[in-house]
Amino acid sequence: MSIVIVMVGGFLLGNSLKKALAMKIKDFLTNEYFIVWMLSKDADGAAYWEDYIKRNPADKEAFYQAQFEFNKVHFKKEKLSEVEKQELFSKIINQYVPDQGKSRSFLRKKMLYPVAAGLAILFSIGVYLQLTATDSKKVEPIIGRVGETKEIQLITGEQEYVFKGNTVLKVDGSDIRDKEGGTFQAEEGTTYNTLVVPYGRQSELTLSDGSHLWLNSGSTLRFPTKFSGIHRTIYLEGEIYIDVVEDKKRPFTVETSQFNVDVYGTSFNVNAYGDSFDGKDRVVLVEGSVAVETKEGNRAKLSPNEALLIEGESLSKQNVDVSRYVSWKEGYLSFDQTPMKEVLMELSRYYNLSFSKESNMDSDQTCTGKIYLSTDVSNVLETLSAMVDSSFKIEENNN
Amino acid sequence: MDQIGVIYNSNIDDLFAYGTRLGFNKEEVMDAIHNIFHKIMLKNSLSELDNVKSYLFKSLRNELFNEFKRSRRVTLVGDEEGVLPFELQVNVEELLIEDEFKAQLKSKIEKTLRKITPRQREIIYLRYTQEYGYQEISEILGIGVPACRNLILKALRQLRDSDVKYFLFLCIRSQQFNNILTFL
């Protein structure tokens, strides 16, 4: 009997102790003198608190815990994006002319103008990304969207080039060349070029550092003619598969509107369409090691054969069969009990198709197997019909 | 060129954050960072420096302050030369406390920081984020070491006096707390 009472008493004491401790920690945390002392770390304050603890030994634990917690307080910091940092650095480096005795004011004037131009470019990029980001969120997933451009576009400086069909490009010195021997003069130095791949098309690109990438349908990539400084950064909206050439001195970053992928010599696939069926962006690692960091500062490292799903602030990892995620670059899609919705969504990307709402997309039908991405879409639909025992009908859309 | 790249990459975030805290917008801070790096490269003076970071902080501050004097867009705060409004916001998300108390604590810290002068805030910012000693801070701000330390002591004493009553209450309660312990 007495044991029972002691136990209850002990329990109550535990709780009231905890409560008293928590309250005291809060008292310290909200004490103005404590706050300014913790932030300034001044020796004078340290002496005061030492004396205080001597006089109030019961507060010792609360005091240390409050200190421990307070050390997690941060000041809010404004940050530049990786691309902005890179562009600012390029401006600094590109205008470096060893002093030849020119007067300071002259140099200053000369310097300010290109900076202003640089900022104007940055500004327009910001707007562009913003617009595409909102746009892709508005899209209803079931009806595929028809891109404005039907052909691959390369925008470099003021120039805009249009390619017929899929294209293989390579950055070569200050030029960009295609497989057929065409040469496109790129914007000089480290300015970023834009490659737009519409639905129904795919493109391959070798960057100036030798890194090789495949850009999937409905994607936009911004890349510099030449990487400068000690960071290699490209900007993506959509999906790429990339083999990054290792260079320990110059880390490689793929930046998307929601997260960054930091790489050190590796192959991986980034899917950042923002309109996938599950509403998640995805990074799949084939080889090497990458770290993903969201704009909110959440970070995760990936090992080979792992996929990271990114949905807003939440990150989740899965072990996956990577071939299923990277087969698109080999010209086929591979499915394993994949819901029909997702299959049709992926197909609509390649062939610029919309599936009508009556196509029974909500059925729990799944699809397993490979579909070769033949140039004739009716072949593909035939294969699909056989796989899932349904039929499809193509109707011309006149917009 | 490699050296400048390393210096740029390891300092750009701190410099940009500091510049925006000084009350300038993104373009102005980027412009100022551009100019200070440019000057460093023209002078080729980095190898002579003991502490590159505090030199960069000081240069950025001077560059922005010259800009501020030139444009006269901002009204001077206080009567000291070289004082810029130094607004601070805090983030308490990582603390292991309930959300309600987080909001309360955040506003308490920000309110406390508004009670002290911009210059005192700036010193606190440099000490807390960069862990600088008074020597480095006095160089960045261009004031003497004793003046720098006195500013912090003044802030601390002012707040301690206003909190005396509060701690009396704390002591009384801890007394009761001890009584409970002896009783059980």
Describe the protein's topology.
The complex is a heterodimer of chains A (399) and B (184).
Chain A lengths: L1 H28 L2 H9 L2 H13 L4 H11 L3 E2 L6 H13 L9 H35 L13 E5 L2 E5 L3 E6 L2 E4 L4 E3 L6 E6 L5 E4 L5 E4 L3 E6 L7 E13 L7 E4 L3 E5 L2 E7 L8 E7 L2 E5 L4 E4 L3 E6 L2 E6 L2 H5 L5 E8 H12 L14 E7 L4 H12 L11
Parallel strand pairs in A: 4-8, 11-12
Antiparallel strand pairs in A: 2-3, 2-7, 4-5, 5-6, 7-10, 8-9, 9-11, 10-11, 11-14, 12-13, 13-16, 14-15, 15-18, 16-17, 18-19, 20-21
Chain B lengths: L1 H20 L4 H18 L8 H20 L18 E2 L7 H17 L2 H13 L3 H8 L3 H18 L1 H20 L1
Helix pairs in contact in B: 1-2, 1-3, 2-3, 3-6, 5-7, 6-7
Summarize the structure.
Chain A has 399 residues and is of the alpha+beta class. Chain A has helices at residues 2-29, 32-40, 43-55, 60-70, 82-94, 104-138, 322-326, 340-351, 377-388; strands at residues 74-75, 152-156, 159-163, 167-172, 175-178, 183-185, 192-197, 203-206, 212-215, 219-224, 232-244, 252-255, 259-263, 266-272, 281-287, 290-294, 299-302, 306-311, 314-319, 332-339, 366-372. The radius of gyration of chain A is 29 Å and the shape is flat.
Low-confidence stretches of chain B: 74-80, 165-184
In CATH, the topology of the largest domain in chain B is named Arc Repressor Mutant, subunit A
- Find the structural class of chain B using helix and strand composition: mainly alpha
- Described by the principal axes of the CA atoms, the overall outline of chain B is globular
Proportion of beta-strand residues of chain A:
25-35%
Indicate the structural class of chain A: alpha+beta
Shape of chain A: flat
Could you report the average pLDDT of chain A, rounded to the nearest whole number? 73
Per DSSP, the total helix count of chain B is 8
The CATH homology group name of the largest domain in chain B: Winged helix-like DNA-binding domain superfamily/Winged helix DNA-binding domain
Low-confidence stretches of chain A: 1-13, 97-147
Would you report the number of β strands of chain B? 1
CATH class of the largest domain in chain B: Mainly Alpha
H/E series of chain B:
HHHEHHHHH
Number of structural units classed as domains of chain B: 2
